[in-house]
Amino acid sequence: MNNPDPRIYVAGHRGLVGSAIVRALRARGYTNIVTRTHDELELTDQDAVRAFFRAERIDHVYLAAARVGGIHANNSYPAEFIYDNLMVQANVVHEAWRAGVGRLLFLGSSCIYPRLAQQPIREEYLMDGALEPTNEPYAVAKIAGIKLCESYNRQYGTDFRSVMPTNLYGPGDNYHPQNSHVIPALVRRFHEAKAEGAREVVIWGSGKPMREFLYVDDMAAASVHVMSLPLESYAAVTDPMHSHINVGSGNEVSIHELAHLVGEVVGFEGRIVFDATKPDGTPRKLLDVSKLRSLGWSANTPLREGLHRAYAAFLAVQLADATA
């Protein structure tokens, strides 16, 4: 990081995480930020990715581009989830190495860990048990991304790092009625129920699973923090076989509690019903974030405050769509 204004490529800059990383970089004074839309650069096309890196002379990469979604999307499109993510990761990592990129940050997902992992989940629990079946193809792709970075570091001496975020939410989220993650799905469902005057909202699952959530701008801040660390500091808390670092809030909440909190933030006053015939997914998923805290970073956005910000962003999108 000797260059005070490195040329930084943010892959996936229109997504939830990528857009937050762009905001975080700009807030910290970085001005030489390179982005490409999906139409401008197809990341599953190796020739296109190679040409991009040859032409742009990138110094650092944030690899936030990914096909993502909730339980329904993972169950419905397993082939797309494993193929697209594998191809994007392989192309970007390999061509970044070929082009001599100085530093790369790969963003994974906490679903990489075993379904019944000991809690809280430490980085070394990776591949220590069976994955959650509902998102196994996505998880396998993300594990491959970590191993790509580790393998290039071991063989070629690159500085490719990985961070594993917990469940994220906030501005830029996907509010698709079937394919979104839990918080945006709840926000949309409660908002529509409120607008329609519905008496009740039905939530998938029993409500018992415990989940950890992190406001996306906190995730972006953590990502920039990790990328800014000297290699010696990063290496001091990792090892070649478990080089990734967990990123989370360190707090968890049940889906039952979360649903009532989202309903309160949105202003829904009806009844909340849980459909236990639908899948719950992993029973509990709390990340151990001691490594990240030892590097000087902790989350600072409480869940209730983050939900208010997320709902405000959702309303802004709804207004923009209505006036377009």
Automatic annotation (TrEMBL):
Domain NAD-dependent epimerase/dehydratase: 8-229
Catalytic activity: GDP-beta-L-fucose + NADP(+) = GDP-4-dehydro-alpha-D-rhamnose + NADPH + H(+)
Record-annotated active site: 138 (proton donor/acceptor)
Pathway named in the protein's UniProt entry: Nucleotide-sugar biosynthesis; GDP-L-fucose biosynthesis via de novo pathway; GDP-L-fucose from GDP-alpha-D-mannose: step 2/2
Pfam families: Epimerase
Entry function: Catalyzes the two-step NADP-dependent conversion of GDP-4-dehydro-6-deoxy-D-mannose to GDP-fucose, involving an epimerase and a reductase reaction.
SUPFAM superfamilies hit by this protein: NAD(P)-binding Rossmann-fold domains
EC number per UniProt: 1.1.1.271
Keywords annotated in UniProt: Isomerase, Multifunctional enzyme, NADP, Oxidoreductase
HAMAP family referenced in this protein's UniProt entry, alphabetically: GDP_fucose_synth
UniProt name for this protein: GDP-L-fucose synthase
Binding-site list for substrate: 189, 204, 211, 280
Organism: Massilia niabensis
Keyword Isomerase recorded: yes
Important for catalytic activity (site feature) positions: 109, 111
Similarity annotation: Belongs to the NAD(P)-dependent epimerase/dehydratase family. Fucose synthase subfamily.
Amino acids binding NADP(+): 12-18, 107-110, 142, 165-168, 181
